[in-house]
Amino acid sequence: MIQRVLIPTDFTVNSLRIVLEYLENSGNQQVELVLTCGYNLGESISFLLGFTLDDHLAEMQNGDFLKGCEIIKSRFKDKVVEMYADFMISKNRRYVRNYLKGCQIAHIVVPDTFEFQHTKNSFDVVELLKTTVLPNMPAITPVCMGEDGLQTQDTLDGFFFRKKWRFTYE
Amino acid sequence: MRSYNKTLYALIAILVIYTVSFVAFIMYSITNFAFSDFYKRLDLRRDLAAERMLNGNANQKDWSLSYLEELNNQHEFIVEFDEQTDIVNSSGFNVSLWENVNKQGEANFKEGNTFYSTKFYQQEGKNYIVGVSAENYFYTHHLRYLQNLLLIALLLGVLFVVVVSLLVKRSFIKPIHGLIDEVKKIGSENLYLRLSEDKYKGVLHKLANTFNGMLNRVETSFETQKNFISNASHELNTPLTSIIGIADLALSKDRTIEQYKDAMQKIVDAAGNLEKKTSALLLLARTGYERNNKLNFKPVRIDQIIMDAEMTVKAINERFHIKTDFSMLPDDSMKLKVNGLAPLLQLAISNVVSNACKYSPDHTAYVALGAFENGVLILIKDEGIGIPEKEISYIYDPYFRASNTQHFSGYGIGLPLARNIIKMHDGELSITSSLGKGTTVRIELPTFTPI
Predict the structure, then answer these.
(1) Inter-chain residue contact A166 with B325, CB threshold 8 Å
(2) Could you tell me if A143 and A110 are in contact, meaning their C-beta atoms sit under 8 angstroms apart?
(3) Residue B253, SS3?
(4) Using the beta-carbon criterion (under 8 Å), do A169 and B432 form an inter-chain contact?
(5) R_g of chain A computed on alpha carbons
(6) How does residue A157 score in pLDDT terms, banded at 50, 70 and 90?
(7) Interchain contact, B381 vs A168, CB within 8 Å
(8) Does pLDDT of B207 surpass 50?
């Protein structure tokens, strides 16, 4: 059975390393990845009415991030059935419960050390999911991000040459 | 442009003619209505006057006025005339108008602002013409006012049409003129210039985009042709130096047959390398002469090309190390196929890789490969001297060498050549660098899609 896995993201290429670490260290289970970012919609009625998920996602995801997702999908073609981004739009406990239940999330991936880049309206999903106690909470899967420093520039370089240059050919 | 003007003037003329005819039609209809309506009212008053004059009491004039208002300057008149239509008797009638009167029946006519309605009556063997005349207040005042109003509206309308048309024409023509001016600036000496696509919208944006695409192809072709001799010398220099070096070394003293064999083998390898480069350069020379600028591109596996390029680089200089990260290779090997010419791609990649090795203190280049949806991504990274930030925009210019490369041999030809080859394959080559820390060359090539 395909499992749906929630992975926190901040739409930077660096944050896709959490996905990579998870995929490389989990079994052969087929998964559907939901890259979730916390986003505070605010109280402006015009914003609430004008908000469309697709437009907003298109605005947040830059070319390199999308390419990074595509590279992961090509690399783990047999394992990753689907991969898409989504927003959690409230910190409310009931919303979190309904979101996880509605999306049928089986696992939540939480990185041990990762600093998310926060924008004006975003909030930390990892913190929220760690602190929220719910009955039937999906299993939390911690991933070790290793000791590699993150790229100062958010480019696709971060995908490669990780973990003390793990080479397959010389 | 002239025919464009003609069309515009024709359109203005049509609009003006339409407006004028519209105004004329309104004026005609309302005048017509005003006349016929007024004559009806005169006819009624004429009949009443005839009734009163011929059958009733001639002095009892005002009885009809209790029912009908008196018209402006209303006058009644009666004319008696004989068989020869000569006036016998008349009261209040201007005889000069006698010609206009119908002596057998009814007549309506107008003299100046005064309207007349007459009718022929016969009583006791005598012929009478009874008539009423009045001024049409509506015609003299309201219709004049309407006429003036319409004339002013017409003039303003025409002015508006002309001004708006000219403004529209200008707004249409202006961006085209801008485009023309930009295109005029581009010549063989500055083929790198591009039209600013963002300035234009709609179809002009598309035009600018297409033109830029064409310029990209022309520039690549032009530069490759222009720099062919330097490219050839640059590429042939290294294997030749290595052949001469090996031969010199072998001849410097007497050696065993094994040593000579070994040297000969090395020379054969270097010559083989030279031959490969010559064929790649010949392919390069053909750019621009092939139809559609596509040199019989074939699907080739990019991972194979990268490995071949690495072998070539290592063969040139044994101190060069290349570390490859193929951990992100896609599961589907079809995604690694690109449409292109293997010798050219190899030439490009080996140039970039050998640069990375050359400018690093540890002579090590890191090469990585991954595939996204429609293309492959090759990253070539080094931890070398980097490129000063100010000079990064010039590095694609042939013969340009960054200010911190004095201690390294080179001609500034390899990178522009590599970039042109990648551009020929509809790909992109970009560089990010930080001075003293290293440089990353990012190459993206579209994946081969079978038709």
Answers:
(1) yes
(2) yes
(3) coil
(4) no
(5) 16
(6) confident
(7) no
(8) yes
Note the pLDDT of residue B412: 78
CA B27 from chain center: how many Å? 44
pLDDT value of position B446: 92
The number of folded domains in chain A is: 1
In this complex, the residue of B324, B371, B373 whose CB is nearest that of residue A167 is B324
Q: Which residues of A touch B371 (CB under 8 A)?
A: 70-71, 74-75
Chain length of chain B? 451
Q: Which residue has the tokens 């004429």?
A: B46
Helix (H) or strand (E) holding B301: strand B298-301
Instruction: Tell me, yes or no, if the two domains B2-142 and B295-446 fold the same way.
Output: no
Alpha-carbon distance of B47 to B117, in angstroms, equals 10
Closest among B290, B278, B437, B411 to B355, alpha carbons compared: B411
Q: Extract the tokens encoding B55.
A: 């059958």
Task: Inform me whether the pLDDT recorded for A170 exceeds 50.
Answer: no
pTM, entire model: 0.66
* Residues of the domain holding A93: 3-159
Cβ neighbours of B379 in A, within 8 Å:
156-157, 160
Write the pLDDT tens digit of every residue in A89-118: 888 888 999 999 998 998 899 888 888 888
Instruction: Compare B68 and B2 and report the one with higher pLDDT.
Output: B68
Cα B72 from chain centroid (whole Å): 65
Q: What are phi and psi of B371, to 5 degrees?
A: -125, 130
d(CA B188, CA B37): 80
Residue A65 at interface with chain B, using a CB cutoff of 8 Å: no
CATH class of B295-446: alpha beta
- State how beta strands B375-382 and B337-340 pair: unpaired
| Residue A70: per-residue pLDDT | 92
Strand order of the β-sheet with B375-382 is B321-325, B364-371, B375-382, B438-446, B428-434
- pLDDT tens profile A14-66: 888 889 889 888 888 899 999 999 988 877 888 778 878 888 888 888 888 99
Convert the pLDDT of each residue in B56-74 to its tens digit: 765 555 555 567 788 888 8
Query: How many CA atoms does the CB half-sphere of B17 hold within 13 Å?
Result: 6
Read off the pLDDT of each residue in B212-225 and give the average, rounded to a whole number. Answer: 81
Q: At the topology level of CATH, where does B233-285 sit?
A: Helix Hairpins (1.10.287)
> Exposed, middle or buried: residue A28 (CB in 10 Å: 0-12, 13-18, 19+)?
exposed
* Backbone dihedral region for residue B293 (phi beyond 0: left; psi -120 to 50: alpha; all else: beta): left
Q: Which CATH number fits the domain that encloses residue A40? A: 3.40.50
Residues 6 or more apart in contact with residue B96 via CB below 8 angstroms: none
In the prediction, which pLDDT does A36 show? 92
